[in-house]
Amino acid sequence: MRFLPTSDQQAMAEAVRDALAKECTPEVLRNTGDTGRDRRIWGALAGLGVFGLTVPEQAGGLGLDQRDVVGVFEEIGRAAVPGPVAEAFAAVQVLASARDDGPASGWLDSIAAGDAVVSAGLGSAPLVDSADLADLLILQHGTELHAVAAAGIRATRAESVDANRRLFTVEWRPGPETRFAAGDEAVARLRDHLLLATSAQLVGLARKLLDLAVRHVSVREQFGRPLGALQAVQHRLADVAVGIEFADPVVARAACSLAAGEPSAARDVAMAKVFASQAAERAAYAGLQVHGAIGYTREHEFHLYALRAWALALAHGDARRHRQRVADDLLGGSPAPRFPAY
Question: Could you identify which of 77, 222, 277, 337 might form a hypothetical disulfide with 201, taking C-beta atoms 3.0 to 4.6 angstroms apart as the criterion?
């Protein structure tokens, strides 16, 4: 397996970074009450083909695979993009195999074009990102997946550590008219792709937090010299950089395993979530430490990315839970209990 990105994958990631540098600045992220902002960013990503990367060509997409989205989602994480971008990627994977005459039919074209916002919720009582803006929700009921249009749900806002990650509880009624997939395999496919996209975002967030910390210690002086000249600070940030470099290939391996349909794909995705969560949390805590008191303030941009890192590290199962899944798979232990969506 080749884990290094190709020139085309690098070019796509760079295009996304350039677009988000204009559309998703810290000033934009501070405006948490502007739901139109999320639609604008969604449209910018759609214009670059982000939502159609893995959509089949006959449905208006690019027909690429999981390896081609890792760099893109790292840039989405680096910018702390609001909205259910990871959920949309995961939803596409299960919608592509839906029956042409079922409740999930006809959505792929709209999703690929950015005309429809789709989110997803796993578990019996999920918290769904941007449920109030979604045109379609993919929701789990037992071992079934249901495609529920916006008109078929009632969304109630829930508390979130990250104000830009707008979570909702949803009330809905499952039935034959909404069910489009059944079985553990379908649920696992949605879960694994959601974990892959989230893990890639966490790596991007870790890189952003490290960049902010390095920039701060380069200009902030104490005792007449920059903080970055202190060996203890250098070692602290070096540990962060090492964690990121260890996490990046683990996420790439998970993408390769999913693309190739490897039997180890679920385990590899779980390991990716472990490494990416640890890297992002380490970057957030180290960055907060070197920023000092200013890192706690709302006036500084650091919190915009640290809060997202902490939120995503816990989302869809934390590192401890996924480490247990890996151990059970390798050692043949009893299956880990189903983890909550959040």
Answer: 77
